[in-house]
Write a structure and sequence with these properties.
The protein is an alpha+beta fold. It contains 5 helices and 3 strands; from the N terminus they run ααβββααα. The protein is about 40% helix and about 15% strand. Helix 1 packs across helix 2.
Length: about 120
C-alpha cells in the first residue's frame, strides 16, 4: 500500500517545479507512456537540487545523466504484462496507488543534501 500523497519538502518542491501534484502525475505518466519499448520513467534530483521528470531507455541509469533518482517507474513489459497485458496506461495509473511517499521524501531530502540514498543493511 502506498502512503497517500507527497508531504513535506518533497510536496513543496513538486508544487514549485510542476505547479501541482496532479501536474507532476501527468508529467510522469507522459514520460512513461512515451517511452517507446523498454525503459523507465523517473523522478530525480538534478545537480541544482531541483526535481526533474525524465525517462531512460532499457537499463540506462539516471546516474549516467548526472541525476539522482528518487522514484522509478519500470515500463519494461515484464513489469506489467502478466496482470495488465498491453495496457500500460492502466499499469501506470495503478503505480500511483503503491508509492510510499514518505520514503520518496526521505530520498529527496538526502539527494538535496548530497547524502547517499542507498538503503543500509546489516553488515557481515
Amino acid at each position: 500500500q502506498g502512503s497517500g500523497q507527497p508531504e513535506g519538502p518533497l510536496r513543496d518542491a513538486m508544487v514549485d517545479g510542476f505547479r501541482s501534484i496532479p501536474d507532476f502525475r501527468e508529467e510522469l505518466t507522459s514520460a512513461a507512456l512515451n517511452r517507446f519499448g523498454s525503459g523507465w520513467a523517473w523522478l530525480g534530483v538534478d545537480s541544482d537540487g531541483e526535481l526533474a521528470v525524465f525517462s531512460t531507455p532499457n537499463q540506462d541509469s539516471p546516474l549516467m545523466l548526472g541525476l539522482r533518482p528518487i522514484l522509478g517507474l519500470d515500463v519494461w513489459e515484464h513489469a506489467y504484462y502478466l496482470k495488465y497485458q498491453n495496457r500500460r496506461p492502466e499499469y501506470i495509473e495503478a503505480f500511483f496507488s503503491v508509492i510510499h511517499w514518505d520514503r520518496v521524501n526521505e530520498l529527496y531530502v538526502a539527494a538535496r543534501e548530497g547524502r547517499s540514498t542507498v538503503a543500509s543493511g546489516p553488515t557481515r
